[in-house]
């Protein structure tokens, strides 16, 4: 570069930055619109509507789809979540323990239950446990089994989340608590864990949403008519009516829960942000 | 003065290969205010944290109020209730309001009733001049206000000794005065205080004694007038001249100024 060049405003060769940006954005819109149009034109809407949107079939699903299927889905999920949270808390604390064997045990648990598909856990609970302990019944029948199976899976994920949350609380918080005379356990319960939960609220909710979907695996335990949840209910009805509308309705019911849940969490997050900052 | 409130004998502390404290002997009498000064990395914060065992000494003895803190069988939680500590970073509990910051430790640790804890909290907030912030969250307070709440929180436990770990170092300069005023009030009320600080004016006016540390040992220990105004040791003179007039310092190598070492 010569001295003369530096005096001038540097000009890009070809397109300027602004022109490039416009071109790039324009191209993205074109691709998007083209994709939507292609889908709309090529899909056979008539047949789709026939198979998935039969109004009278949908209507006859009510109120059972809510009072029975959705209720069971929520029940399975919440019980699994509670078991998972309790167990996950214990495992997280074991993982942070100064006692070696506790740490190893927690690590092994997490690796195993995070590595196995939830489906296998359900089959294991449904088949292996009755085989191994003949005569024993898991408390709560199907509900107990689902809570246990979902809880075992969820605990592995939640333990790691909770551990990360606890470690994300600044070290000074524990020091301040200890200097005030809190025992380590009491400092954990009163000071550290409440702050950790604020931090991990979003990932925990994610876990809840995952559990909602995993609760559909209950069908591998074999359920009575009264114990059916959304997916099983929808599939059963789809086969008796030879139409897929119940599947669509069941799907919408899941969203009925998960979308407001996401909204509530964003609100809580914003509030916690305001308090902690 | 009968028995010293804090007694430190032959204290050593190492972090791995880093020998931070190399044999400290120090006594602090009841109601005495002692300021510990020294370059960063000199071990003064570590010394303070050894007094309530936030750091475990490698060797030596610490006795507070007649109880040997370093005894492995001592109930350390019970000892710590008598020792208040104020941190550089305040360490208020951010999920609790100001009042809850003061009441929760009283209720959980001292098992005080709800009304009693609230009364003590209000009284101590009043003392530090923050009664009107009782329902605020720490994040809405200035650094100086947070530090005063932290002092009130420690006082609410009724300690016999207060430890201050660079209480004004994280504050904007114009907020330092409010915190120092509270500390001065405490000193006048006869609280036994051990203060790690860089505030020379405070040390000169409030402290009964000033201890200068460097390289993990006590270099000089005496009245503020003597240590600050007429230091006997070259190292003290050197440190003070750099502190009091930082613009005049020369570039030097291999001093004890280990960047980021002082915790």
TrEMBL record, chain A:
The keyword Hydrolase does not apply. Pfam families: BPD_transp_1. Gene3D superfamilies: MetI-like. InterPro entries: AA_ABC_transptr_permease_3TM, ArtM/GltK/GlnP/TcyL/YhdX-like, MetI-like, MetI-like_sf. The keyword Cell membrane applies. Residues 70-265 form the ABC transmembrane type-1 domain. It is found in: Cell membrane. CDD domains: TM_PBP2. It is a multi-pass membrane protein. GO terms for biological process: amino acid transport. GO terms for molecular function: transmembrane transporter activity. One of its GO terms (cellular component) is ATP-binding cassette (ABC) transporter complex. Keywords: Amino-acid transport, Cell membrane, Membrane, Transmembrane, Transmembrane helix, Transport. The chain crosses the membrane at residues 27-46, 74-96, 108-132, 138-159, 180-201, 247-265. Belongs to the binding-protein-dependent transport system permease family. HisMQ subfamily. This is Amino acid ABC transporter permease. The lineage of its organism: Bacteria, Bacillati, Actinomycetota, Actinomycetes, Kitasatosporales.
TrEMBL record, chain B:
It is a peripheral membrane protein. The keyword Transport applies. Its main location: membrane. It catalyses: a polar amino acid(out) + ATP + H2O = a polar amino acid(in) + ADP + phosphate + H(+). It comes from the Bacteria. The keyword ATP-binding applies. It holds the Pfam family ABC_tran. It is an enzyme of class 7 (translocase). One of its GO terms (molecular function) is ATPase-coupled polar amino acid-transporter activity. GO terms for cellular component: plasma membrane. Keywords: Amino-acid transport, ATP-binding, Cell membrane, Membrane, Nucleotide-binding, Transport. This is ABC-type polar-amino-acid transporter. It comes from Streptomyces galbus.
């Amino acid at each position: 570069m010569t001295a003369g060049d530096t005096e001038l405003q540097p000009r890009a060769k070809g397109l300027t930055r602004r022109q490039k940006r416009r071109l790039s954005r324009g191209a993205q819109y074109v691709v998007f619109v083209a994709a939507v149009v292609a889908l709309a034109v090529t899909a056979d809407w008539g047949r789709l509507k026939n198979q998935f949107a039969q109004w009278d079939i949908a209507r006859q699903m009510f109120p059972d789809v809510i009072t029975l299927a959705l209720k069971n889905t929520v029940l399975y999920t919440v019980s699994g979540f509670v078991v998972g949270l309790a167990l996950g808390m214990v495992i997280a604390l074991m993982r942070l323990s100064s006692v070696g064997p506790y740490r190893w045990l927690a690590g092994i648990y997490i690796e195993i239950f995070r590595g196995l598909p939830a489906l296998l856990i359900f089959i294991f609970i449904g088949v292996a446990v009755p085989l191994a302990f003949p005569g024993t019944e898991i408390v709560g029948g199907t509900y107990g089994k689902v809570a246990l199976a979902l809880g075992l899976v969820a605990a592995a994920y939640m333990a790691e989340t909770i551990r990360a949350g606890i470690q994300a609380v600044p070290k000074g918080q524990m020091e301040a608590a200890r200097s005030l005379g809190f025992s380590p356990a009491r400092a954990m319960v009163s000071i550290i864990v409440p702050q950790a939960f604020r931090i991990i609220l979003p990932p925990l909710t994610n876990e809840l949403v995952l559990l909602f979907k995993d609760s559909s695996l209950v069908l591998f335990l074999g359920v009575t008519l009264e114990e059916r949840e959304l997916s099983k209910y929808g599939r059963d009805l789809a086969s008796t009516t030879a139409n897929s509308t119940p599947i669509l309705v069941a799907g919408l019911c899941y969203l009925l829960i998960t979308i407001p849940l996401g909204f509530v969490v964003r609100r809580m997050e914003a509030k916690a942000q305001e308090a902690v900052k | 003065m009968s028995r010293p409130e804090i007694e430190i004998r032959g204290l050593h502390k190492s972090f791995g290969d880093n020998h931070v404290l190399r044999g400290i002997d120090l006594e602090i009498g009841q109601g005495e205010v002692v300021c510990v000064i020294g370059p960063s990395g000199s071990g003064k914060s570590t010394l303070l944290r050894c007094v309530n065992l936030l750091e475990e000494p490698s060797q030596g003895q610490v006795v507070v109020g007649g109880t040997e803190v370093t005894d492995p069988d001592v109930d350390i939680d019970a000892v710590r209730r008598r020792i208040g500590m104020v941190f550089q970073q305040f360490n208020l509990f951010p999920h609790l309001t100001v009042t809850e910051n003061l009441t929760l430790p009283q209720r959980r640790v001292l098992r005080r009733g709800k009304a009693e804890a609230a009364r003590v909290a209000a009284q101590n907030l009043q003392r530090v001049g923050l009664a009107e912030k009782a329902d605020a969250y720490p994040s809405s307070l200035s650094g100086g206000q947070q530090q005063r709440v932290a002092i009130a929180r420690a006082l609410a436990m009724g300690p016999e000794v207060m430890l201050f770990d660079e209480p004004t170092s994280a504050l904007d300069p114009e907020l330092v005065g409010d915190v120092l005023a509270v500390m001065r009030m405490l000193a006048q009320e006869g609280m036994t205080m051990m203060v790690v600080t860089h505030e020379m004016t405070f040390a000169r006016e409030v402290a009964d004694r000033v201890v200068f540390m460097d390289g993990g040992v006590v270099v000089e220990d005496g009245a503020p007038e003597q240590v600050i105004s007429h230091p006997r040791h070259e190292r003290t003179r050197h440190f003070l001249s750099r502190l009091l007039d930082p613009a005049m310092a020369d570039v030097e190598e291999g001093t004890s100024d280990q960047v980021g070492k002082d915790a």
